[in-house]
Amino acid sequence: MFLLNRGKAIVLSCASISQASYYTTAKRLDENYTHFGYKTVKTEEKAGRVLDVFSSVASKYDMMNDVMSGGLHRLWKDRMIQKLNPDNKAVLLDCAGGTGDIAFRFVNYVERQHSQFTDHPNVTVCDINNDILEVGKSRALERGVSLNWVCSNAEELPFPDQSFTCYTIAFGIRNCTNISKVLQEAYRVLRPGGRFVCLEFSHVSNPILSKIYDTYSFQVIPVMGEVIAGDWNSYQYLVESIRKFPAADEFKQMISNVGFKVVAYEPLTFGTCAIHSGFRLK
Amino acid sequence: MTDVARPLSTVSSKSWNLQKTAAPPVCSPCTRKTVLTWIIRQYSMNNDSSDEQQSPTGDSSTSNNESNSHKNSEQAEGTTDQKDNTQDEFHTDNADDTVDIKTKILDNALDFVHEYKWSRKAISSGAEAAGLAGVSEGMFKGGGEDLVLHFVRQSNIRLQHFMKESVKRQDEEGEKMKSSEFIRKAIEFRLRLIVPYMDNWSDAMGVLLRPNVLPKSAEELAMMVDDIWFYAGDKSSDFSWYTKRGMLAKLYGSTQLFMLMDQSPDFKDTWEFLDRRLDDIKNIAEISQSISTTADAMFQAAFSSATILKNILGFPDRKR
Ligand SMILES: C[S@@+](CC[C@H](N)C(=O)[O-])C[C@H]1O[C@@H](n2cnc3c(N)ncnc32)[C@H](O)[C@@H]1O
């Protein structure tokens, strides 16, 4: 209680500062600058800054996820896999896969649905941050699941064209500097018939809810971040980056623009999150 | 799917109220066949009285009918497989190339119905056979429902081609078939398209009767029936379209039901049943007294027995 109160005061002041700087910096954005949360940084710097954020959070990240979303992220992730409904021949690339949470769910799903088939699901987890991949690797060892782990930027994937049938990215794409580049790469590495599925925070459409959610996400989440992960800056960044991410319809258009077909999105929990999906058909 | 010119395709969707018919006396897997016989007998009661089998007696439990029929119709929904229940999804894209690919996938999926029933698995296998990744199955929101509807549409299009050809041949040979004969040929042709899927056809009928699918399947049926009348060259103006639709829909529906349980070689009994029912159409005056002329009545005619069927079908094959 004491911690929360203290944190709240700090956050309140910081939140208003960052709100103000958002309006001024928005104007200054040009090709060489990109957003890092509400701070504007040089484009080359962003990848490095993002890396710092996740390095400092890596091992506590999953616990934070639980607290932040009230455990909802599990439901959202399960919904994402259920929507994807991978068959026993699915070949997955889980981009920005972090500790492999999506990948493990995918493996579980395939093994549960297709227990009669023997093929072991072929899954690759890719992330820009090696620390976080290490956490994932040790988890995979504990679980006795074998996955491929690749350290790479989602904007330049080290895989040949048409290598996968499923591409997932959960709470990762908003961290990327150039979203269109990520989408182009996703399209390139998917086989015809393959599916792109993205789970990401979204803007809340209901104005009242949106107000509550804003307050919650700017004030409560970073506090909890500090309490639990001991890293206030990182969580302030996470929250701000959600605000900067394109609205659901705009993002849907971006997905269509790189060639995906039957593009759709499904809002989750009053639109706090959305699952976007598209198919490569040619 | 491909839009083919239809002679009459406006159907008032408000009028698809299903008749709440009393459930048949028995609902249990072992007596399924008897019950089907019973339904068909109900059908025939209007016109003939002697040549059908006896109604099943003995194990009737009339008091449970009401609750049974409710429960069963709910259960019937789970028969094929779970589908994507997304309601609020925002979705665009019906460009021609996408439609073509979808059609190709579903066409291929039909080859897997025997193995996997009317399921998402059948669709993903079809996608692979079409050279696409299996997960493209996710494009079909209705899953197995989409596959069943696709089959119905394709079959109706094939029927249309068949009838068009027959009419052309008749014109060339200068010999005009009687309407009733033409109708018989058309219905037999259409029903024979189902034969390769017979093992899973009761499932498919269950799917077509689901509340969310019914508007589409009823529309398909109405259009098919209109097509048949159109190509049969019936010019009589004694009866409204609705009356005619009703007659044919009923004829088609009851013959299809009969076919489900027909064990005779090459469905010989079915075609005999069809011939008997065709007398209804020949003696059109007699029929017109038993069928009212509203759209409501038409769908009741076509689906009342189907409602019962649905209750029965809810039972046997639901162990997944
Ligand atoms: C919020 S975590 C999500 C992890 C995991 N997908 C999940 O849902 O639990 C975001 C991840 O994106 C990764 N990431 C950020 N920018 C990236 C980039 N440009 N390319 C690849 N991964 C990136 C981070 O290292 C981090 O592990």
Automatic annotation (TrEMBL), chain A:
<keyword id="KW-0808">Transferase</keyword>
<keyword id="KW-0472">Membrane</keyword>
<feature type="binding site">
    <location>
        <position position="127"/>
    </location>
    <ligand>
        <name>S-adenosyl-L-methionine</name>
    </ligand>
</feature>
<comment type="pathway">
    <text>Cofactor biosynthesis; ubiquinone biosynthesis.</text>
</comment>
<dbReference type="InterPro" id="IPR029063">
    <property type="entry name" value="SAM-dependent_MTases_sf"/>
</dbReference>
<keyword id="KW-0489">Methyltransferase</keyword>
<keyword id="KW-0999">Mitochondrion inner membrane</keyword>
<comment type="function">
    <text>Methyltransferase required for the conversion of 2-polyprenyl-6-methoxy-1,4-benzoquinol (DDMQH2) to 2-polyprenyl-3-methyl-6-methoxy-1,4-benzoquinol (DMQH2).</text>
</comment>
<comment type="function">
    <text>Methyltransferase required for the conversion of 2-decaprenyl-6-methoxy-1,4-benzoquinol (DDMQH2) to 2-decaprenyl-3-methyl-6-methoxy-1,4-benzoquinol (DMQH2).</text>
</comment>
<keyword id="KW-0949">S-adenosyl-L-methionine</keyword>
<keyword id="KW-0496">Mitochondrion</keyword>
<comment type="similarity">
    <text>Belongs to the class I-like SAM-binding methyltransferase superfamily. MenG/UbiE family.</text>
</comment>
<keyword id="KW-0831">Ubiquinone biosynthesis</keyword>
<protein>
    <recommendedName>
        <fullName>2-methoxy-6-polyprenyl-1,4-benzoquinol methylase, mitochondrial</fullName>
        <ecNumber>2.1.1.201</ecNumber>
    </recommendedName>
</protein>
<feature type="binding site">
    <location>
        <begin position="153"/>
        <end position="154"/>
    </location>
    <ligand>
        <name>S-adenosyl-L-methionine</name>
    </ligand>
</feature>
<comment type="subunit">
    <text>Component of a multi-subunit COQ enzyme complex, composed of at least COQ3, COQ4, COQ5, COQ6, COQ7 and COQ9. Interacts with PYURF; the interaction is direct, stabilizes COQ5 protein and associates PYURF with COQ enzyme complex.</text>
</comment>
<feature type="binding site">
    <location>
        <position position="99"/>
    </location>
    <ligand>
        <name>S-adenosyl-L-methionine</name>
    </ligand>
</feature>
<dbReference type="InterPro" id="IPR023576">
    <property type="entry name" value="UbiE/COQ5_MeTrFase_CS"/>
</dbReference>
<dbReference type="InterPro" id="IPR004033">
    <property type="entry name" value="UbiE/COQ5_MeTrFase"/>
</dbReference>
<dbReference type="Pfam" id="PF01209">
    <property type="entry name" value="Ubie_methyltran"/>
</dbReference>
From TrEMBL, chain B:
<comment type="similarity">
    <text>Belongs to the COQ9 family.</text>
</comment>
<dbReference type="InterPro" id="IPR013718">
    <property type="entry name" value="COQ9_C"/>
</dbReference>
<keyword id="KW-0831">Ubiquinone biosynthesis</keyword>
<comment type="subunit">
    <text>Homodimer. Heterodimer; two heterodimers of COQ7:COQ9 come together on the same side of the lipid pseudo-bilayer and form a curved tetramer with a hydrophobic surface suitable for membrane interaction. These two tetramers assemble into a soluble octamer with a pseudo-bilayer of lipids captured within. Interacts with COQ7; this interaction allows ubiquinone (CoQ) isoprene intermediates presentation to COQ7 and facilitates the COQ7-mediated hydroxylase step.</text>
</comment>
<feature type="domain" description="Ubiquinone biosynthesis protein COQ9 HTH">
    <location>
        <begin position="100"/>
        <end position="128"/>
    </location>
</feature>
<feature type="region of interest" description="Disordered">
    <location>
        <begin position="46"/>
        <end position="95"/>
    </location>
</feature>
<keyword id="KW-0446">Lipid-binding</keyword>
<dbReference type="InterPro" id="IPR012762">
    <property type="entry name" value="Ubiq_biosynth_COQ9"/>
</dbReference>
<feature type="compositionally biased region" description="Polar residues">
    <location>
        <begin position="46"/>
        <end position="59"/>
    </location>
</feature>
<dbReference type="Pfam" id="PF08511">
    <property type="entry name" value="COQ9"/>
</dbReference>
<comment type="function">
    <text>Membrane-associated protein that warps the membrane surface to access and bind aromatic isoprenes with high specificity, including ubiquinone (CoQ) isoprene intermediates and presents them directly to Coq7, therefore facilitating the Coq7-mediated hydroxylase step. Participates in the biosynthesis of coenzyme Q, also named ubiquinone, an essential lipid-soluble electron transporter for aerobic cellular respiration.</text>
</comment>
<dbReference type="Pfam" id="PF21392">
    <property type="entry name" value="COQ9_N"/>
</dbReference>
<feature type="compositionally biased region" description="Basic and acidic residues">
    <location>
        <begin position="68"/>
        <end position="95"/>
    </location>
</feature>
<keyword id="KW-0809">Transit peptide</keyword>
<feature type="domain" description="COQ9 C-terminal">
    <location>
        <begin position="215"/>
        <end position="284"/>
    </location>
</feature>
<protein>
    <recommendedName>
        <fullName>Ubiquinone biosynthesis protein</fullName>
    </recommendedName>
</protein>
<dbReference type="InterPro" id="IPR048674">
    <property type="entry name" value="COQ9_HTH"/>
</dbReference>
<comment type="pathway">
    <text>Cofactor biosynthesis; ubiquinone biosynthesis.</text>
</comment>
<keyword id="KW-0496">Mitochondrion</keyword>
